[in-house]
Input
Amino acid sequence: MAGSKSYKIATIGSHSALQILKGAQQEGFSTIAICLKGRENVYRQFKVADKIMTIGSYKEIMDIQDSLIKEHAILVPHASLIEYVGLNNVEKFKVPYYGNKNILRFESDRDIEREWLANAGLKLPKIFNNPKDIDRAVIVKFHGAKGGKGYFLAKNEKDFKEKMKSHMTANNEQEKYVIQEYIVGVPMFIHYFYSPLTEELELMGFDKRYESNVDSLGRVSARDQIALPKIDPSYVIVGNIPIVVRESFLPLIMEMGENVIKESKKITKGGLWGPFCLETIMTPEQEIFTFEISARIVAGTNPYINGSPYTWLKYDEPMSTGRRIARDIKQAITAGQLSRVLG
Ligand code: ATP
Output
């Protein structure tokens, strides 16, 4: 096995790559940014990439595996990898990979994901399997809808049926959807980190998303919304806003994270490790509903390249999630246990 100094941290140049690569350099690693042609400049300009490998499309990452292995690269995944390279390809990927690949299936299927979170004791929005049962505000989500495109709110079966009419596929089939209780509250994305080496759950920070157009609808009065051509809400993310949460929520937030980790160990060997995020809505009754989990670094950690208030309390030095990943890898290498953090 190569010595610790010779390992390099590689990631795809997008999403949270600036922070992952910067964090890796801070921990003493050389870095590789794998960039689409034309996107290299950002990584060069911010000096986070010691090497840039250029590809014509994200799927071409499969063709440069041997070069990455020769470089002793360890790949740190983020959402762009899974989304653009595809789950099946990622599972087959030969390059050492930070995190547990086995967990990816559990978060990519809404039903299995729900079972995991429910068994972890989290409060989840109710699912309506039959539109007849809709007795409150619901959000109708379409599978694979990018940026929540086409999601709509409905208040009863009649309303649902009316709005579904515009959701038939080209072959006149119903698009796949789920009817979920609409939780009125504020969205809150909770960033955690769990190291299999220390077996400790760390709270890294919080964010809320800045989503277009839903975050701009409040700027158009109800009168104008009615007068203007139909505006459908969409949830296309354009940025992330940092949040510090009310301190009395922290014990529950930590307990939720602990239970998710505990449950993950029951459903797959090794369970979940590394960064993950619970996507929640907090209600005026101070309940926290989780509507999704991301089992990897989320872009909501990007405001904290220099650390968050929570990581400052723990580390007394700048500690981004990207840097925390690199430290986990470094500690594993030093302990001769690199395989414990690779999936
Ligand atoms: P993905 O990460 O898969 O792209 P997402 O994280 O954007 O999806 P979705 O489940 O597609 O999450 O929801 C999009 C947005 O809709 C969320 O960011 C949130 O603002 C809102 N939302 C989702 N579910 C609910 C719910 N049950 N009640 C209220 N608002 C919701």
The two ends are 17 Å apart (CA to CA). The pocket of adenosine-5'-triphosphate is lined by residues 125, 139, 141, 148, 180-183, 187, 209, 235, 279, 281, 291-292 (CB under 6 Å).
